[in-house]
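Backbone shape codes:
===
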Amino acid sequence: MAGADGDDQVRPFGRIALDGIYSDWASGHHLNPRLLASELAAILATLAPPNHPIQSLHVCVFSEGRSDRNIQITHGALIDYFEGASNGRQARTIATNSGPVPATNVLIWRKWIERLVDEATFRTELAAGFAQPANDSGALSLAVNGSSAINRAPPPLISGSSPIVLKSQQAQLRREGEKSASEQLDEERTSRERLEQENIQLKAQLSIEKARSQQFMEEAEEYRRKASNEHRARREAEDESIRMEEQLEQVLGLSEFMNQDNQLSPPDGRLIVECWCDVTQNGTTTPTIGWSTIVTKWFKAKGVTLPAVKVKLFVTALTGSGRKKGGAIARPDNKG
């Protein structure tokens, strides 16, 4: 920024103390410092609403050898500071969210403030040019009694601190600020509407994904149930197949046991099985008399009289012992 008066105003990282800005203008700037302060305040008003905090990169509070980013300064506070300077009342403090802070502890990023001051300078010079009279290019020659004479000198330029220029500049900056604020509001409104629309779309997509996820979970659960039922049915079928194979082996063994053509088939064994099947009707009825009597009657019906030893042998085979009840073939409740 033009007009810096020494290294004592420069703080860490290319910054300058807030209270050193106005003194820089007073010592080195070609415009009136008060006018420049007024125009800078007007430009700051166009950047953001007054209650918005300024980025800590641009303005920060520096104390005890470090910057405190928890202390914020709003655009409105900086505007009030420069407006006070434009009225000849340069404040020693500035308002923050933590209360008043000495202006010497507030550091401004040089490049940021220089850009704003350059813009304020350009606008001031432009407005001053518009206020110049149209016939200021030289003296006017008029004829007086037939002779040419210099009538008057060109009027001087209007000072940049003239109330007319100040009012004109303030009105122009106010219009530009209102336009800029309106454009910012429109942009924010458009951005908010776009974000709301995107939010609605994202919610719809999320709802669809939730429905798909729920459907997938239900299908997976149904598949798991079917797989479990199929596995159980397959296991039961395997168990039933094993049981039937065992029964078939027994039936095949009994078939060979009763096969007269099989040399290993015992004749007495065939008679014992035949007797048991006839007496119990293939294992469906229980004999009501002792097995000795049953065996004797059964053989007599076939025209065979068995000796007592043979009868005892058949009874033992049918009951499993020499006692009168229980056995391998006869039921336990049968009496011998």
Q: What stands out?
A: The longest helix spans residues 163-257. The two ends are 132 Å apart (CA to CA). Residues 196 and 202 are 10 Å apart (CA to CA). Helices lie at 18-28, 33-47, 75-86, 110-130, 163-257, 267-280, 291-301, 308-319.
